[in-house]
Amino acid sequence: AREGFIRKTKTVCTYCGVGCSFDVWTRDRHILKVEPGPGPANGVSTCVKGKFAWDYVNSGERLTTPLIRDGERFREATWDEATALIARRFTDLRAAHGPDALGFIASSKCTNEEAYLVQKLARQVIGTNNVDNCSRYCQSPATMGLWRTVGYGGDSGTIHDIELARLVITVGSNAAESHPVLATRVKRAHKRRGQGLVVVDLREHELARRADVFLRPRAGTDFVWLSAVTKYILDAGLAAHDFLQDRVNGLDEYRASLTAFTLEYAEAVTGLRAPDLRALAHRIVDASDGRAPGGVCILWAMGVTQQVGGSETSAAISNLLLVTGNYGRPGMGAYPLRGHNNVQGASDFGAMPDRLPGYQQVSDPDVRAKFSVAWDCEIRPEAGLNNTTMVAAALDGTLKALYLSGEEMGLTDANADHVARAHEALEFFVVQDVFFTHTARYADVVLPASPSLEKDGTFTNTERRIQRLHAALPPLGDSLPDWMILQRVANALGAGWTYTHPADIMHEAASLTPLFAGVTYDRLDGYRSLVWPVNADGTDTPLLYTERFNFPDGRARLYPAQYLPRVEAPDAQYDLHLNSGRMLEHFHEGNMTFRVPGIAAQVPDAFVEVHPDLARERGVEDGAYVRLVSRHGAVRLRALVTDRVAPGELYVPMNARRAEDAVNRLTGAQADAATCTPAYKDTAVRLEVL
Ligand code: SF4
C-alpha cells in the first residue's frame, strides 16, 4: 500500500479461543479502528481486547533485531549471524549428545503454519520428537478426556450449537472474562430463549450470577459430583438406553467403577447438597429427552483441566454426556474452551511429542513412512518430551538446548523458580518472541518475531474452525513472521526449505493430513472458514459424531472412573486454597496488553481477591498490600475484597505487570497424571498482612 493510504485488512483475534474475525483499518502503522465483520464465531461483536488492545504492536519495547548473549549482556546481531550461531550450536550439541538433547516448544499465539514448521524443524531437521506447545499448560487434559471417550480431542460442535442447547452447563470456566463473545451468546440465549444455564465454579463471577443454578463445590472435586450425578441417572433408569445400546461400549465396567459415587458421598466430598445434585441430574435428563431440538452442552476450562485429575474429570464430563445421549445432534455435546485462539491449531498441526499433524501417531509405521518419504528423513517411533518433562530433563542435564517460540514460559509454566533453574541449566537457549520477555533473560539468542497483525496464515478456534488472517502491518524493524524465522533457522541447518508464503505450508500440511485434506487458502478467502475434519472436496464437519464416533468400530467408549484428590490440601501452615485465571482486559501473562496504555490504565496490575469475612478476620484492608506464601514461593499483591470468592479461597489473575508477582511463583510441580499439565489450581497458600 502507498504511504498515507487507509487500508482495511481482515484478520482474526488471537486473544482467546472464540476466534473473532474483524477488519483492521490502518494508515501507515496507525491502527485507526477495529471493525467486526461477519465472522462465523462472533458475528459483529468483539470484546474490549479485540477492539482496543492492539497498540502494543508499535511499542518502543518491541524486539526489532536479533540479539546474541555477550557475557551478562546482549548485543544486536544480523539474522545471518544469529541463525549461523543457532545452527552451529544445535549441530554440535546433536553430534555430542544425540538429537534428543534438543527440544522445541511452539506457541498458540502463532499460526497453524508456524506450529507445523516448529514440529517439522524438530522432526525433519534435528531428528527428535521433543516438541510440544502451550496447550500442555491448559487444555491437554480436556483433549485426553475426549480421546478416551469419543475419539476426537476438539469441541463436538460449534458455538452455534451451544446457542441451540436447551441446557448449558459451565464447569471451571469464567467464560464472561475468558471467552467474552461466546459468553455473550450464551447470555443472549438464556435471556431471550429461556435456555437453561447452570454454572459450577469456585467463584461467583458474572455468568454465575446470571445462572439459573450456581453450584460452588470444594476445590478439585468436580470429578466427584459429575460421577455421582451420572451414577444417579443410571441407577434411576433415566439414562439414554437406546443411545447407549446402539453407540457406546463399556457400560458395565463404567457402571461398576461408579459404585462409591453416591450422592451422599458426593455431598461429603464436594460440599454440594445431595438434593441439589439430584435436581441437577433431573434437569440434565429433562433437557436430553429428545422430544425437542437441542440437548445439553457442557463447557469447561482450566478450573477442570489444571488439576491432578484433569484428564479424569474431562472424561467424566464426556461420560455424563454419553450416558444422557448428548452427542451427535445439533445443540449438544462437549465444549472444552480453548484459551488462546490457536491452542487448538498448535496441537492440530503436530506440535506434540507423540503426534504428527492431524493427530497421526508417531508410533504408527504407516504414518511414519508417509512423512519419511515426504520429508526425506527418518521419523522416530518413540514419543518425545513434553513441556513439563523438558523442564525436568534440562535440570537433570539430558536436555541441552531449547528452542522456545512465542511463550513466556518462565511465568506461565507452574513453579516459576524451578523453571528458571531449568532455563539456567540449558547449554543453549533460543527465545523467539515479540518482546524481550522475562524468559528471554536466560536465552543465548533472542529472535524478534511479528505478532498476528503483521502476519498471514490461519488460526483454528475452539470450534475447530480454521480462519485466515492477513497482515495488516509490515513487520516492525527487522522482526519477521515466525514462519520466516523458522525457515531461516532450518535452512541454516541445511534443510533447503523453499516456502514463499504460508499457503505453501498449508498445502504441504493438507497433503499429508487426512484431517485437513480439503483445506486450501482459496476455500478460506475473506470471512470463509472450514471446520475440521475437512474432506478433499472441501466439505467440512461443524458437528461431530452424527453417525460414528472416532474409533475403528464407530462406537464411543465410557471411561472408568478414578478420582484423584488434590495434592496440596490446605494445612496449618498453608491454610487457604489459591485459585487463578484470566482477566477480561488482559491477555495471558500480560506482555502485550500491559503495553496498551488504555488497557493498562484500566487495569494496571494483578491483585488478590479476598472474601470480606476473611478480610475482617485477618485485618486485610481493601487495596492494601498483602503477601501470599506457598511451599514454592511468595508474591506481593494488593487485596481486592469481594464476595466473588468463597471465604476459604483466594483468587489471583494470571496476568501480572511485574514478573516478581506472577502467580506461578506460588504454584508447584504437581501435574495431571495423564498429560503432565501442571495442576495450577492445586495450590495452598497463607496470607500475610504487610
Ligand atoms: Fe473475540 Fe476472544 Fe478476541 Fe474478545 S478476546 S475479541 S472474545 S477472540
UniProtKB/TrEMBL annotation:
Keywords: 2Fe-2S, 4Fe-4S, Iron, Iron-sulfur, Metal-binding, Molybdenum, Oxidoreductase, Repeat. Its cofactor is [4Fe-4S] cluster; Mo-bis(molybdopterin guanine dinucleotide); [2Fe-2S] cluster. It comes from the Bacteria. One of its GO terms (biological process) is formate metabolic process. Residues 6-61 form the 4Fe-4S Mo/W bis-MGD-type domain. GO terms for cellular component: membrane. One of its GO terms (molecular function) is 2 iron, 2 sulfur cluster binding. Coiled coil: none annotated. In the C-terminal section; belongs to the prokaryotic molybdopterin-containing oxidoreductase family. This is Formate dehydrogenase, alpha subunit. It comes from Deinococcus maricopensis (strain DSM 21211 / LMG 22137 / NRRL B-23946 / LB-34). The chain holds residues 253 to 942 of 1008 of the full protein.
